[in-house]
Structures are given as structure tokens and as C-alpha cells.
Amino acid sequence: MENIKSAVSIRNFNKKYKGFSLDVAALDIPQGFSTALIGENGAGKTTLLNAMAGIRLDYKGSMEFFGQWSDKDREKEENPVRELIGYTGPGNYYLPQWTVKQVEEITDMLFEGFDRRRFERYLEQLQIITTDSKGKSKKVNDLSDGNRMKLMLSGVFARQTKMLLLDEPASPLDPLMRDVLCDMIRAYIEQGAGENTVFFSTHNIADMENVTDYAIIMEHGRVVEKGFVEDLKEKYVYVKGEAEDIPMAEKILYTITKNKYGYEGMCLADHMNQLAGLDIEVSTPTLSQISVAVMKTNSRVNLQ
Known about the structure:
Blueprint: E1 6-17, E2 20-30, E3 34-38, H1 45-53, E4 60-65, E5 69-70, H2 71-74, H3 81-84, E6 85-88, H4 100-110, H5 116-125, H6 145-157, E7 163-166, H7 175-191, E8 197-202, E9 214-219, E10 222-228, H8 229-235, E11 236-242, H9 246-252, E12 255-259, E13 262-268, E14 280-283, H10 287-298
Helix pairs in contact: 5-6
């Protein structure tokens, strides 16, 4: 796709830990789309999101937001970047002793674009019970993991923003609420008329695939694949074949799973001509299948 602006441009990013280094030479998050950051636990997803949100600043490299502000600008009080970005993440996002009412009041004080009526509508839509059996406002610490995530989502979706950074938003949600989250993301993107962007991380893309426009796959601190989903589904082909052809197929396929009945796996579309003459069944892969194949190929885990 041409003439697509970037919500965030990352250059020469590096964050080192003991035994691990997150290195991103160049990465652009397309504006106006929903982008999934896919990778197994420990791939570096949370570190990257925290750096983008300004939660951690101990990294090397640079970021540019909406084509006009740097990560240094983001830290200035008068700069609008923080107001334009909503973030949710795991851990103590809200202090555990805060009540739901205090969350609403504090968010209202911190962000000019926060709409309390929208926040309360989200609480109702997401079925967050805000009081205990005695009629007192529930504390954050009294909520389940799923309800804490729904509370965080209510807070950011009730603000006027141009980009949402969501770290593993679907993980603590049940299947129904994951579907509701997908609806919320679609509505947010559509309401932005090409300006609103969602960037979310996940280690299991299956439940969020239908709301993903662009995918970035990470493995052990590196971006190993990226692109619009429709382009990735043209780049890769899912293949099934007969057992007798396994010796030839395993030399050609990107990844392969074998058993006594046959094989199946991912093949690069550019290599499909090398399978000519074999009895094969081909299909368009899901993003989940592509992600697993790419991660498997680039994993440092011994998969033998």
C-alpha cells in the first residue's frame, strides 16, 4: 500500500538486559490501522510497548510520533503526545487500593480528553461490577484479572486519542469479551477516519486475527517478519502432501510437520514452482499459522 503515514517510526532502538537484547533497526507503525505485535513470552513485546508509551526511557535509539514529535518531545509537559496516546498494560497499572470511582476521578484529572459519561457506558457494556455486596465501591485489588483489564480498557477508550497501545489486552479476557474488544477496536479505527491507530501485543493471535490489519512478528528481541496481513497471506502458502514426497518437500518448505500419512507445512509462494509435479493440496494460511511458522523458524528454543 502506498502513501501510508506512520503513527510511530522507530530507528536504531536497543535495550539490553542480562542475557537478552531488544534490537529494532527500523520499524514503522502504519497510521489508521490495527497492528498486532506477535511473539512468544520473552520476545521483547512489553519492553517495546513500554518504551513507546514513555514508561521506560532507558533505551538507545529514537522514535517519532505522528510525523512531527520525537520521544524527547513526548517528555515535555506542554507537548500533546501523551494526551494523544492511550496505554494499557499488565501489573499495577492502577494502584490496588484505588476504588473504581477514584480511577474515574484521577483519569479525569490527568487527561483533558477523558469523557466520564463514555467511561461509565463502557463499565456497563463490559459488565464491570463496581460495588461490593455492601454497596461500597470496589477496589482495584478486589477485581478479577479480566475485570481489571476491562477497567483499563474503559479508561483509554473513553479518552480522545489518536493511538492506543495495548499490551496483551486479550489474555485475561474470556472469548465473548475478546470479541467485544475486537468490536471496540474496529469502532475506534473507523471513528478516526484514517487517523486513529491501535498497536496491541499478543502471544496468540488467533482470537484477534479478524481485527488485525498489519502484523509484526518478533522472536528473541528481533523483528523477523512484518507486513499487511493480506500481503503476508500472498507471501506464504499452506501445503499438504503425501508421505512418499516428504524427502523432497522438507528441502523446499519453510516449515514442515511429518507423520506416517503425509506432511503439511508452510511454503514461500516464490518456492511453489519447486513443488511442481507433487500431489499437494494448497490453501491460504491464517495469520496464526504464518506467525507460528515464522516464530518456529527463528526460535532459539530446541524444537527437535
